Amino acid sequence: MQLSGLRYLLALDRERHFARAAAACHVTQPSLSAGIAALEQQLGRRLVERDRRFIGLTGEGRAILPWARQVVAAIDGLVQAAQAAPGPLTGELRLGAIPASMPAIGMFATELARLHPQLRLSISSHTSREIAARLAEFALDAGLTYVEHEPPSGVVRVPLYSERMLFVRRATGDAPAAIGWDEALAQPLCLLHQGMQNRRILDANLAAIGHAARPAATADSYVALLALVASGGFATIMPDSYAPLLPAWAQMIAFDVAMPASAIGLIVADRTPLGPMALAALAVGDRLRDR
């Protein structure tokens, strides 16, 4: 069985479009179609519903996806292990990160480059649930996410640091050292939407002290929230790890009502054996732990 046919099928499922799948595999569209047709002939089953455009995978095509992911990941791990044994690790480490963890990306990338200078790092932003799913599907090698609140299952985790929340608004003069939740929640707030774990943690902590946030605007990134704050009409609540990255106009105010800190860490899928990329990520995590 040709491994390329499995790669083409996975790309087609991911891209949902023949031309985009071919481009992702760095082949022509006729080559991709021929590879999938050969795979169908070998299995004796139709895997793709075809018309002039991609319609979807057949039941048989969807059924073999988990096995195709495992086969492709196992072969990639085998190749990486063989290449790394006599020399430096090469290739691409795919890291998924929740928005709250983005300030830690620089530390991770710097340490990875120090340990494995010939390794490329590919970073993508996802929700915590997407990271867990992509690790299970072999689409990511490692993730930066919350490791205590809604902890993902089937992973090896390395806690890296704890975050606390800051109230952020456009500078209006002297800022108080701290602000109470009553005053903060009375402001026109923009927050992450409830599909983001940072927001769910905030809501849970507020509920525990008898409060609730009712934001006037929501978004899925801190860049969008800061753009709203920059307008002068909104304030926001975000992790203190973002403090070094905030622009000069942003006023950062601590909360005078303590809330539990949230642990962010590195996770990889708990498999035997762990692949070279997962081991490389864990080595970085061990060096960065509580730095």
TrEMBL record:
CC per GO annotation: cytosol
Residue ranges of domain HTH lysR-type in the record: 1-58
InterPro entries, sorted: HTH-type_LysR_regulators (IPR050950), LysR_HTH_N (IPR000847), LysR_subst-bd (IPR005119), WH-like_DNA-bd_sf (IPR036388), WH_DNA-bd_sf (IPR036390)
Leader sequence segment: none
GO molecular function: DNA binding; DNA-binding transcription factor activity
UniProt keyword list: DNA-binding, Transcription, Transcription regulation
Domain of life, per lineage: Bacteria
Stored PANTHER family: BLR3139 PROTEIN, HTH-TYPE TRANSCRIPTIONAL REGULATOR YBHD
Family under the similarity heading: Belongs to the LysR transcriptional regulatory family.
Protein name: LysR family transcriptional regulator
Lineage per the UniProt record: Bacteria, Pseudomonadati, Pseudomonadota, Alphaproteobacteria, Sphingomonadales
